[in-house]
Amino acid sequence: MSISGHNPPVGIIGGTGLTTLSGLQIQTERPVDTPWGQPSSALVEGLLGDQAVVFLSRHGNPHRIPPHQVNYRANLQALHDAGVRTVVGVNAVGGIHLEMGPAHIVIPDQIIDYTWGRASTFFEGELDETTHIDFTWPYTETARQLLIAAARDQNLAFSDFGVYGATQGPRLETAAEVVRLERDGCDLVGMTGMPEAALAAELGMNYVCLALVVNHAAGKSDHIITMAEIEAAIDQGMSGIKRILEVSMSDLGALTPQFS
Length: 260
Ligand code: HPA
Description:
The protein is α/β, with parallel strands linked by helices. It contains five helices and eleven strands; from the N terminus they run E-E-E-E-H-E-E-E-H-E-E-H-E-H-E-H. Strands 1, 2, 3, 4, 5, 6, 7, 8, 9, 10 and 11 form an eleven-stranded mixed beta sheet that branches. The model has no long low-confidence stretch (mean pLDDT 94). The site of hypoxanthine has 12 residues, from strand 5, strand 10 and strand 11. It is an enzyme of class 2 (transferase).
């Protein structure tokens, strides 16, 4: 157990279905700016249990920024500037793997990036040297293990593995595209996992993904994907996501950053 009063704040990036974090005792809500522009929302700073947290709504509050237009660089920079060294990205996803149906929770361990045209690195412009970060393991394993322990502790239905296929959106996939994703080894598909994870790594922050399956990926059920299906899965599954966040928060805060 950590002494969370001394921990740096943990960043939580909420996605679809998590534009605000109930349970967060809000202390301040402040709009910020960065050299990369404005983040998607004001930073909401407060306490979850006794752990300092900075919450940011990836699609804005209210939800208005589509996945391909999120300013991922500004979001990560704003969290870093606020002292955050560990980030939990909460993502709504489509399930490809058989065990990943609606309302199932996944703590993935790998990514395949199919996005394009997004500002996806801090290393551009006039640089002293070219930088290639190592990205073999895109999610911080110690952080993943803390989320896994919390999900287990709460008796939730979850998977402790998964390859996250990050697609461009904002449209959903065709059935054939999902067959290709599956052939590539993807277990789940979402639109916001990248470049978020890589940007966190470039800043030397710990990063972990907590995904909620909100629909069977296209062609993986006998019906087309509807907003009603997605909303029902969010209603059913988001309480589990919040419980995992609450239980794991102070241990996440105690993690050492990759670089300071
Ligand atoms: N595909 C891509 N992104 C998603 C999906 C999906 O099926 N569901 C939620 N986000």
